[in-house]
Specification:
Distance between the termini: 13 Å
Helix content: 10-25%
Number of strands: 9
CATH class: Alpha Beta
Largest sheet: 6 strands, mixed
CATH topology: Rossmann fold
Order of helices and strands: EHEHEEEHEEEE
Strand content: 25-35%
Shape: globular
Number of domains: 1
Number of helices: 3
Structural class: alpha/beta
Bound molecules: guanosine-5'-monophosphate
Length: about 170
């Protein structure tokens, strides 16, 4: 059966917001470089689009994590499937994530990255669902605050589908 998806943010709205985030990050990191750490796979589209909108020097790395649990609920126990390729010692790290939901994944990840001797670790999330939060996570840059709904597109999947939608939608 075909899933019915309603548009939450159009491609134009998402790209316009990412451009604004890029400008804000460029101002905040003026005179420095920023080391983007994109979280696979959901944040790949967002990481690439954001990187193009940042005007200070950018380096990139990716990490893959999964949380034990079923596909729609995270458990709080996080496993690193692919670690960073390069050390982050002395770098200004900006973690780029698709969505902060319960906060379980990011709470673990920020804690883990915070122990690796970087100059700073900040977080940029395209989407933020504060209503669902179980663990306190400081989101330094937020694209959109959204209600408690399951969203897809722009990197976000439902059973690995819909990551390639250029907009953000809600499965009805
Ligand atoms: P958290 O640990 O904050 O609960 O969950 C983070 C991860 O759960 C995200 O990186 C994402 O993979 C997944 N997730 C949470 N909410 C949604 C959603 O609405 N749609 C999709 N596709 N994934 C979600």
């Amino acid at each position: 059966m075909k899933d019915k998806i309603s548009v939450l943010y159009t491609e134009e709205e998402v790209n316009a917001r990412i451009k604004e985030l890029g400008e804000e990050i460029s101002r905040d990191y003026a005179g420095r470089s920023v080391h983007l750490v994109g979280i696979l796979k959901g944040a790949t589209f967002f990481t690439c689009e954001l990187a193009k909108r940042i005007t200070v020097p950018v380096t990139l790395d990716f990490m893959s994590v999964s949380s034990y649990g079923n596909s729609t609920e995270s458990s709080g126990v996080v496993k690193i499937n692919k670690d960073l390729d390069e050390p982050i010692e002395g770098l200004d790290v900006l973690v780029v994530e698709d969505i902060v939901d319960t906060g379980n994944t990011l709470s673990y990840l920020l804690d883990n990255l915070g122990k690796r001797g970087s100059a700073s670790v900040k977080l940029c999330a395209l989407l933020n669902k504060p209503e669902r939060r179980l663990k306190d996570v400081n989101v330094d840059y937020t694209g959109f605050i959204i209600p408690d709904a399951f969203v897809v597109g722009y990197g976000l999947d439902y059973a690995q589908k819909y990551r390639n939608l250029p907009y953000i939608g809600i499965i009805e």
